[in-house]
């Protein structure tokens, strides 16, 4: 008896969502098989990889990043331009670390100014992330959504705590895309999608950030949540979970010991920045294989490796 | 994929002789089908029928033991595709590859790397479990390298398509329960003979999955059922597809012809790009690799890969715990604060990461709190005044410290009074609710 291939067909398909405008705009989603299972059916749009930049100088991350981006100085827009020209990411994620009320507490106006300048300098889609302070983020997001009308940006993220304000301004009033952030729990992810739907946000405007973790730091919750979401969205055609997934893995990876410990702290571990890249590549790829349609990384070498990986598997 | 009662009934002599202790063959068969009784209880069942039954009830994927002594590991034996369905049982093994083109220095460098990367992480010893030595054309070099690397006491994987060279190599390491890779349609009988004689696992390879399938059946026919399938393929996409299809055919396709562990040459696929190796190895931890072959090992590769593997292969029912003890950050002194949290690994990692980030010396005291999050442990009565007192007393911190400050998680601020009563002489400080506020908190505390 010869080999008979076991093909797994699903009823459901991941929604397609468009980010950006013009030539560099792209879609994610459209897949009706498990990630990269093109041998089963329609693998949809190629997964996308973005690079993280910050409204704070790169030196706030580490000396190595400051060195890497020194040409841009402390100018966020120049940094964004440099990243786009030199490394060709699919999109750029601008994170407002400086907006944190417990940190620099930059004003909403300042943040909007930076976002505008960055948006003017780049042609790839823009993703805007906050400082993890729900209240402040929600103010910043509303104003940026307004200021960047027509740019079709992604706002990262609306959470249970602020989805009304962020969803209403971001998606309803100014027609931007919204990421719905939950914390590695399929039910919470589903609930937030439903709440956004009830608010009137169209499903074509929603991407999910279902939560993440660096590998070694509870990543089993991330992968199992994604497995379960896909088995529900594809297998049971559950349209409250068919939003594509974006995972900002760099937000977690660069704050774990493997990336933070200096060579003096851990002499046996070797080069610090390469350690961070290996952590980043491993985490990004693990998310993509589990279900992310887009990931955000910090180091250009991670971007290069993960993009190559995606191309090989697409 | 067990048989039904009716199917088992057809295997009995249907004489209702009652010797099995059941009134009829049918009643007996129903019990066997439910797993309550062993088929052996009927003395009249033919061996052929027994064989059929054990085949039908066998697990979808075989389990093998490879290596000897401390190096001994199990591979295979998975029953599900996704870890939330049931625990994954045998973690994929990492093998470091050597081939006969390496010079002595290169061999020594890899051997040293294998020795160096050996560390503990949450109760698990992390290192590369296997070495793989590949024969190309230089037999002398191949056998020399095998001699050298087999001294490491790892699982020895011998790779040779030349059966006579394979025989010589296996002869050298036969007492270590090695694995022999490199069997294909041209050398199958000779390779099966070596593997059978030494009772070792044999690795098969073929250009396509269809041919691999036929090869498994041929090996089976030749009498060898202890197999590993080389699912590498000529490029990355093919390797992924092969590895997924083989596992899926076994687990959900009910086809035991592919019910064997896989081996993937990540080193070849990555073509010298170490970051790509990490990407592929990580992929295979999630998607069905059993043995992952790397070109080399180092901490920067090991830390993410072994961390990921440890995560994926934890029991979903059992939370990961860290050892209850005092952890030190930045060479703490007698007046450094003592932070307190629970032994749930995730909590520990988040908290320790933030203390690390704060770059301010501190002690971190972890009591035995049952392996749950702060609030759950507290609600379960495992993280209260007396538990914390005992942990402090046993830690020996009181003798070390001149300034006794205990920082408790903000979420259990209610414990402050209790702890103060239990620990006279200590200043109990309520810390932040969320770990990310720790750096700021510590800065203000000092
Ligand atoms: S011992 Fe065997 S033959 Fe006799 S009744 Fe039981 S099943 Fe039937």
Can you describe this structure?
By secondary structure, chain A is an alpha/beta fold. Chain A is about 40% helix and about 15% strand. Chain A has one domain (about 15-315): Alpha-Beta Barrel (TIM Barrel), CATH 3.20.20. Chain A has helices at about 65-70, 75-85, 110-120, 135-145, 165-175, 185-200, 220-235, 250-255, 255-260, 270-290, 300-314; strands at about 15-20, 25-30, 50-55, 90-95, 125-130, 155-160, 175-180, 205-210, 245, 295. Chain B has about 450 residues and is α/β, with parallel strands linked by helices. In chain B, the strands form 4 sheets. In chain B, strands 3-6-7-8-9-10-11-12 form an 8-stranded parallel β-barrel, surrounded by 7 helices. Chain B has a 5-stranded mixed sheet with strand order 13-15-14-16-17, sandwiched between helices. In chain B, strands 1-2 form a two-stranded antiparallel ribbon. Chain B is flat. The model of chain B has no long low-confidence stretch (mean pLDDT about 90). The interface between A and B is large, with 55 and 64 residues. The structure holds iron/sulfur cluster (SF4).
């Amino acid at each position: 008896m010869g080999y008979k291939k076991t093909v797994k067909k699903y009823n459901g398909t991941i929604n397609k969502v468009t980010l950006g405008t013009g030539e560099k705009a792209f879609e994610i989603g459209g897949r009706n098989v498990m990630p990269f299972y093109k041998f089963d059916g329609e693998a949809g749009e190629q997964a996308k990889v973005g690079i993280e930049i910050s409204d704070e100088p790169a030196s706030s991350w580490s000396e190595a990043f400051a060195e890497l981006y020194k040409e841009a100085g402390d100018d966020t827009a120049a940094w964004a331009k440099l990243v786009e020209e030199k490394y060709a990411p699919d999109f750029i994620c601008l994170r407002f670390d400086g907006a944190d009320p417990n940190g620099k507490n930059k004003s909403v106006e300042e943040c909007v100014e930076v976002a505008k300048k960055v948006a003017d300098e780049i042609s790839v889609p823009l993703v805007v992330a906050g400082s993890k302070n729900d209240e402040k983020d929600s103010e910043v997001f509303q104003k940026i959504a307004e200021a960047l009308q027509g740019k079709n940006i992604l706002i990262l993220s609306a959470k249970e705590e602020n989805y009304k304000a962020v969803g209403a301004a971001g998606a309803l009033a100014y027609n931007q895309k919204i990421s719905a952030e939950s914390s590695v729990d399929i039910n919470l992810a589903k609930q937030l999608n439903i709440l956004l739907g009830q608010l009137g946000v169209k499903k074509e405007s929603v991407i999910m950030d279902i939560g993440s973790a660096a590998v070694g730091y509870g990543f089993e919750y991330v992968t199992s949540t994604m497995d379960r979401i896909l088995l529900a969205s594809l297998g049971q055609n559950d349209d409250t979970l068919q939003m594509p997934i974006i995972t900002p893995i760099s937000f977690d990876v660069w704050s774990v010991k493997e990336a933070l410990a200096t060579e003096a702290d851990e002499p046996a571990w070797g080069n610090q920045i390469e350690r961070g890249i290996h952590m980043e590549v491993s985490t990004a790829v693990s998310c993509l294989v589990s279900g992310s349609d887009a990931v955000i990384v910090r180091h250009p070498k991670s971007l290069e490796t993960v993009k190559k990986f995606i191309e090989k598997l697409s | 994929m067990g048989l039904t009662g009716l199917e088992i009934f057809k295997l009995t002599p249907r004489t209702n002789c009652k010797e099995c202790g059941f009134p009829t063959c049918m009643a007996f068969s129903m019990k066997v089908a439910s797993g309550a009784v062993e088929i052996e209880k009927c003395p009249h069942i033919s061996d052929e029928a027994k064989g059929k039954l054990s085949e039908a009830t066998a697990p979808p994927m075989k389990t093998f033991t490879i290596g000897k002594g401390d190096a001994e590991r199990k591979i295979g034996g998975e029953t599900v595709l996704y870890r939330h369905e049931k625990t994954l049982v045998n973690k994929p093994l990492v093998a470091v590859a050597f081939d006969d083109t390496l010079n002595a220095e290169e061999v020594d460098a890899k051997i040293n790397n294998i020795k160096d990367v050996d560390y503990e992480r949450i109760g698990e010893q992390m290192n590369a479990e296997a070495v793989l030595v590949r024969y190309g054309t230089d037999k002398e070099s191949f056998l020399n390298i095998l001699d050298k690397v087999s001294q490491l006491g790892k699982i020895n994987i011998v790779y040779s398509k030349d059966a006579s060279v394979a025989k010589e190599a296996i002869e050298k390491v036969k007492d270590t329960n090695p694995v022999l890779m490199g069997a294909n349609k041209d050398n199958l009988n000779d390779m099966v003979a070596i593997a059978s004689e030494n009772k070792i696992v044999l690795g098969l390879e073929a250009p396509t999955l269809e041919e691999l399938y036929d090869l498994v059946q041929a090996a089976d026919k030749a009498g060898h059922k202890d197999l590993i399938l080389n699912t590498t393929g000529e490029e990355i996409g093919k390797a992924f597809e092969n590895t997924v299809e083989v596992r899926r055919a076994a687990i959900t396709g009910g086809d035991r012809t592919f019910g064997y562990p896989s081996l993937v040459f990540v080193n070849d696929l990555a073509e010298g790009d170490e970051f790509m190796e990490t990407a592929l190895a990580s992929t295979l931890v999630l998607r069905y690799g059993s043995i992952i072959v790397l070109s080399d090992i180092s901490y920067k590769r090991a830390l993410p890969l072994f961390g990921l593997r440890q995560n994926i292969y934890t029991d979903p029912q059992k939370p990961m715990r860290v050892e209850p003890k005092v952890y030190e950050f930045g060479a703490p002194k007698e007046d450094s604060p003592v932070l307190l949290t629970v032994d749930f690994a995730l909590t520990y990692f988040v908290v320790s990461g933030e203390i690390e980030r704060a770059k301010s010396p501190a002690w971190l005291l972890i009591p035995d709190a049952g392996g749950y999050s702060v609030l759950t442990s507290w609600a379960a009565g495992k993280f209260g005044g007396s538990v914390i007192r005992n942990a402090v007393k046993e830690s020996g911190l009181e003798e070390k410290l001149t300034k006794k400050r205990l920082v408790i998680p903000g979420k259990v601020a209610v414990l402050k009074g209790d702890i103060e009563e239990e620990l006279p002489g200590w200043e109990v400080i309520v810390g932040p609710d969320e770990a990310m506020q720790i750096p700021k908190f510590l800065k203000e505390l000092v």
